[in-house]
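Hey, I'm writing a tutorial for new members on how sequence and structure tokens pair up, and I'd like a real worked example in the thread rather than a made-up one. If someone can provide the structure for the chain below, I'll link this post from the tutorial.
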Amino acid sequence: MHLAEELILRKRDGLELGTEEIRSFVAGITSGQVTDAQIAAFTMATWFRGMNQGEQMALTLAMRDSGRVLSWEGLDGPVLDKHSTGGVGDMVSLLLGPIVASCGAYVPMISGRGLGHTGGTLDKLESIPGFNSRPGIEQFQQLVRQHRIAIIGQTSELASADLRIYAVRDVTATVASTPLIISSILSKKLAEGLDALIMDIKCGSGAFTPEPADALKLAGEICAVANEAGLPCEALVTDMDQPLSWSAGNALEVLEAIRFLRGERRNDRLFSVVVALSGELLQLGGLAGSATEANEMVINSLDTGRAAEQFSRMVAAQGGPAGLIEEPEKFLPAAPVIRPVFADTSGFIVSIHTRVVGSTVVSLGGGRQRAEDTIDPSVGITDIAGIGCEVDSATPLAVIHASNEDRWEHAATQLKCGFKVGSEPGRNSPVIHSRVQGGM
């Protein structure tokens, strides 16, 4: 029996896989010797049987070693990054990257595209005219060395096996397998050559892991594998029971992020998550000695405009307009139909089904159900009312940005289903639920 068949059989039967077995299987994926059908069988067996920490470690390292591993000799600061499990209105990477870079770190961020109801950092940045998200590894490293930060899409040169495995997971209902999630995330982060990593694990109605206990468990497992692999990693479990910001949609989120960086308008919940994650990462990277010092550094970076300048330099270096931070409306695409949507009854917002909000953006054309789908960067939702807000005939649930009247009408009907309005305001969940250091 061939190795791939034997490994699938052993995993199917619930047996523990050895490190060399896993390494050989991943090498076969990279070389093409292992077929897509065999990858599908392996991912499904892993979905049902799971993996222990030793197997997860072996799979993660094998996937890391399936491509290049970057090195950053000669830098005068730590190499840091952040990863989120995704959500609605989650523009944290657009803010955290420039903040941390302006505080002395180097941030080689390799980001993904949105899929399903969640938005992707790469899609947001690609709504900026001219922005080059695929400069190649050599230029990527040069950009990071020169400007301290670059954000690009996944490349086949890093963690090559992950591209094939994820493509199969996407069409075999195994994307949500915890061991496969961990190996996919960490193999790419380890290949970046990082000194430290902060994870943002979402919970709530718009999260991959709705229950806080499940999110906490995932956070612990990711941190444990990362730290065992030699990558200092901590995680925050943060709330996604409502959109994290006032906007959901690619160009619209870039616009809100720019206004945040310029200090014009900052959503309190978004601000809390950005400060907390950035502060934890500065401490992990040795740039701050305490939480108080780290938070002061983050706020100073924002208030002095250094983070905004860092964002502006990054965009220009990757082909975007040099004047984006000063005149974003001049460059970002705008939808032709922009109108508010109102609740059917007056009252207070009791709860929000965040997944419905994200799905509404997808129905407008601002997201994708399959990786190959194209998106309209101009559409989405702004001015999203939060839990506890009062709404009436003059105060809308949100403003919908649509490509035409029919799509606006459909989105309005869909969006209203995501809001529960009552006579008493709902209670907000804490935006930060818990913190995990070094695993569970």
